[in-house]
Amino acid sequence: MYAGRESEIPRHGDYVLPEIAGESIIVTRDSSGRVQAFFNVCRHRGTRICAASEGHFEGRIQCPYHGWTYALDGRLLGATHMQEANFCREDYPLNRVHADLWDGHFFLNLSANPEPLMDQLASLPRKFAPWCMQDLRLQKRIIYYSHAMNLRPLWYARPPEVKLTTPVAVFTLLLNR
Ligand code: FES
Questions:
Q1: Which domains, ranges and CATH numbers included, belong to the chain?
Q2: Which terminus of the chain, N or C, has fewer Cβ atoms within 10 Å?
C-alpha cells in the first residue's frame, strides 16, 4: 500500500506514522539512509511507542513506558528490568514491516513474504518514467475517512455522534520543486 513520500523523512531519525489496516506503523530512515518500517508496538509489554504522527528520533527509538531503546534499524539496544541470564536482546527487535521504494514513494506491505513491489507494479514504472516522480515534492495531502454513525433515539437531545474512523482514500498533490 502507498504510504508516503521519501521526502517526508529526509534525515536519519525523521519519522512518520502511517496507519494501515488499523495498524500504526513507524516509518523512519536509519543511519545508512535506508527507509525502515516497524509496527509501533514495544516488544516488552506491547505499548505504543510513538504518539505524534511525525517527528524525529535522536538516534534511537525509545519506548515511553519502561524505556526500552531500539536502533533506527529496529535492533533492541537497551532493555531495562531484564536481568534474566537467558534474556537475549537479539531475540526482541521491533517487528518489521516490509517497505519498498519507487520513484520517491514508499510502500508498505504487512504480509510476511510479500511479492516484490516492482513485480506488482509490472509496467507502471516504465509508463510513469517521463513524470520523473522522484523529483516532485509533496505539496498537500488530503485523507478521507469513513464515518461511523452512533445513531441515538429521536428523542435524544444531542445530535448523532459521528466518529472519524478508518482512512478510506489518500490524495497526494505533488509539484515540481
Ligand atoms: S512496554 Fe515498552 S519498555 Fe516496557
A1: 2-120 (2.102.10.10), 139-176 (no CATH)
A2: C
